[in-house]
Specification:
By secondary structure, the protein is mostly helical. The radius of gyration is 18 Å and the shape is elongated. The chain has helices spanning about 5-20, 25-40, 55-85, 90-130.
Length: about 130
């Protein structure tokens, strides 16, 4: 498993948001962590990502970014709220949720890269077969 810098930033953001005592400060911390992590590398699992059917470059860049960051932040906020309501101490919950996100994000990114590589190999083999 290759741990990606974006996954580490997202996991750190989740852990810091989980540690925040004030519930109103959690969402901005999550959004910031996921936004910074997106620019380092896209997440392995994108909960909801909308890709517009248009040729305008600003829409094809900003809409997937906004939908992915917002959906991941909402999912992590819900998970964080549920985890904080358990008997688990908050620092341990923060480490578990942040570390779990790093591992899952990295594993899913590895699976996606392997799938893409297999697709390229199959397409390359089909191209060579049709050329001969």
């Amino acid at each position: 498993m290759k741990v990606r810098p974006g996954a580490v930033v997202r996991g750190t953001g989740v852990a810091l948001a989980c540690l925040a005592g004030d519930a109103s400060r959690r969402s901005p911390i999550l959004l910031t962590g996921f936004a910074i992590g997106w620019f380092l590398n896209r997440p392995g699992l994108q909960t909801v990502t909308v890709i517009p059917d248009t040729e305008e470059p600003w829409k094809r860049t900003t809409v997937p970014f906004a939908t992915s960051v917002a959906s991941w932040s909402a999912v992590m906020l819900a998970a964080m709220t549920a985890l904080r309501r358990t008997r688990l101490p908050v620092p341990i919950a923060a480490v578990v949720l942040g570390g779990g996100l790093v591992v899952v994000d990295s594993l899913l990114a590895d699976l996606g890269e392997a799938r893409d590589a297999a697709g390229v190999e199959v397409a390359h083999a089909e191209t060579e077969a049709s050329a001969t």
